[in-house]
Structure formats: C-alpha cells, structure tokens
Amino acid sequence: MKHVAHWIGGKSSPGTSGTTGDVYDPATGQVTGTVDFASADEVDAAVSAAAEAAAGWRNASLARRSQVMFSFRELVRTHTDQLAALISSEHGKVASDAAGEVARGLEVVDFACGIPHLLKGSYSENVSTRVDAYSIRQPLGVAVGITPFNFPAMVPMWMFPLAIACGNAFVLKPSEKDPSASVLLAELLAEAGLPDGVFNVVHGDAVAVNALLTHPGVAAVSFVGSTPIARHVYQTATSAGKRVQALGGAKNHMVVLADADLDNAADAAVSAGFGSAGERCMAVSVVVAVEPIADVLVGKIAERVAGLRVGPAADERAEMGPLVTGPHRDRVAGYLDSGVREGAALAVDGRSHPVSGDPAGFWLGPSVLDRVTPDMSCYTDEIFGPVLSVVRVPSHDAALDLVNANPYGNGVAVFTTEGGAARRFVNEVTVGMVGVNVPIPVPMAYYSFGGWKSSLFGDTHMHGTEGVHFYTRGKAVTSRWPEPGPGTVSLKFPVNN
Q: For the segment 226-240, what is each residue's pLDDT rounded down to a tens digit?
C-alpha cells in the first residue's frame, strides 16, 4: 500500500508523531494506503522552514517569481492525467471531472503568471512642493491553506499560486481523505525551480489545524470547508492576530421562473446537482420551481436522471462516481428517509440506481426529493451529496424571499428568458455569486470567488485581485529629497502646499 508523507523544506518528510490515517478508494471501499498525521512539533518544523524561506523569497524579482509560475503551469499541464488519476483514486470522481478540476486550478496559475502587472503600485509626483508619494504592496510572510476533500487539487491551486507569486511562503494542510495530489503539486513546484521551503505540506487532523491557526509564525490563513469549521477557523486565527478568509458551507438554489426554457433548466439542474456526486460547494442542491411549471420540470429532471451512468473512474462512460467515504454515503442517504418522514415526495430514489462498479464502493445514485419545504432537514442542512430538493413557490417574489432568507449565501442561479426579471433578481438577491441561465456560477480566475452570510467569514474573497490583496499588505511612502542648503525647524502641523 502507498504511504503519503509530509513535504517540508523541499523534500518528503515522513511523519514522526506515530499517528496515521487510512486512505480509501471510494469505488471499491478498500484501504489503499496510509497518510501521516502531523504533531504540533511537525507543524512547527513546516512553519519554521517556510519562515526561513520567506525571508529570501520576498526579495526574489517579480520576473523570477513569474518564471517559476510559468514553469509550474507547464508541468501541471503535462501531468494533468497523473493528477486526475490520483484525485479519482482517492476522491472517487470520474476521470473527466478530475481533469476539469485541474484545468480550473490552472486558471489561477495563469492569473498568477501576471504577477508583475498585478503588483504594480501607484506614484504621484509633487503632492506637495518637491514631495512625491507612492504606494507598494508587500508580502505577509507565511500563509497557510486548509483545504477540503472535494477538490484536492483545485482549491489549493486557488490559494498558493497567488500567495507564492506575491512573495510569501506557504504551508498547505490538505484533506486527509485524499492527500496525494498535494504532494505531487509540491514535487512539481520544486521541479519548476521554487526554492526549498517556500511550499510545504503537512497532513493531519484537528491537531495540525489548530497548531497552524495559533502558530506565531503564521501571518494569514485561507480555509474552505463547512460553516461550523469555518467559524472556528476564523475565530481562532483572528484571535491569534492573523488575517483570515474562511469560506464555509452552501445551500445553492437554482430558481426556475415560469417563462424559462424547461429543457435547458432540467439539463442544468441535473448537471449541476449530480456532477462529482453533489460533493461541490457550488453544486445546486435546491431547485426552486415557480408555479405552474413544477410538475413538468420535475418530470424532465427525472427522465434525465434515469439515464445517468454511475460507476468508477475506470469506466470511461461513467458520469458520476461514488461518495468519498462510507459514513458520508450513509449520512447522505439518510436524508431520503427523513425527507419522506417530514412530508417530501421521493421522486427519484438513488439507492436503486444501477451502478457499474464494485458493490463494496461508497455508491449512492442521484436522488430527487419533491415538495420540499423550508422547515425540512433536507432543506436546512448542507447535504453535500447527490440529493436534489425541489421547492415549489407561487411567484418570483416568493422565490427571491426564499433565497434571501436562507442563512447561506454562496451561489445562486436564475433561469429565465426575460431580461428584466433576471436583472431584478441579480440586483436584489443576497448571495455572493449569481448565475443567469448558468447553474454553477464559479467566476473566472480574474474575478473573485466567495459567498455572503454564513458562507464566508472574513471580508476578502478568493483569487482575482482580492486574492492579491489578501496575500499582501499596502505601504504608503512619502518622499522628499531636499536641495542642498540650510533647512528650517517648524512645529506646525504639516500641510500640503
């Protein structure tokens, strides 16, 4: 079986804590390896290596940093199949989905390659007589990324390329469920010419996380995960004086107005609800059907779900894979029973969906709960699996009120053929990312990614120019070069003249 070690100071670093975790192949249910769990001492070693490296890396030229990013970009491209295979073997998503994850991560690397332009400051001559003023942005030091299981390559790549390009060193704590992709990324960064210690990987559980959140050598923390953990990360790290962006959970709605193209809407609902087995923070989990179209829409969704092929990544025709663990699969499946008990109608039961893979895998087919109401647990909870809930509402206003009343504000979509209705929805909805006839409105790398309300703790979104600002701090400089000759002493408050 494989063994996944830490990556500290530019090399593989086997754990010394004596604690490990099992790594599974979700498609077979079998343990395929182990991963070291870091102790507080090992976290300290990683942060110390990063701090030492950051002292030199911050002075590397912008041209040098950009060259490393360009080299890393090409290496990831040539190793996409290898990265995708690692993701599929530990997460379970099908090969095309895993390759798509790598591609979306590369978009941020592409953006980071432009760091010389992104870090340009400003300059004003003669703000006062022979006095000039300018601004610069400088790196923070050591930044930390704590990332979830559902995107073991993409989410880290939404963090570390910008952090490193801005002149910081980075410590990544990936999910212990699928840790191998992060180590391969570390190896590719080293091959790209990144100095030892600028990028480090420590695996583990809450011990490692809390050690990073409170370590005095850490300046900033980026996190993606569930809302309860995001809140803990934010409160703990900010109390320790760190800059934090903590992206939490989601309950993404897809509002289908009565004038929408229902075939297009059904295609989008199935694609966005069941891709990656629903284990996406931007997956559609609630379809809000504005009457009188609900019956027709649910019927079209059910027709499409019946034709989905569920199977392992080895099955080239598979469109949806297993869930990441057995306990998670069982928890998700439990919402089908609780939903019915609470009054929902089980329009599609994924437990009977055919599967082309090993029966011991963590399978649950795509499921649809109809006539869901906002008081049901299948609506209030973040299920994070292939369960699509349909809520029926009487009007556009009712749909908007439903979305705005939800405590989460990550992503939302509206499907309509009427421009005025779409514009009003975009203007009034209290959600951070909005799609118009786009079911998964993940922004391009040069825009920011992040939600509102309980989907984000902190005031800065991820990647884009907000990412550059998160990983740097501003410095304003006022400069005067006096002409030769005697000066004067003045205790007056300085004013511009």
A: 999 999 999 999 999
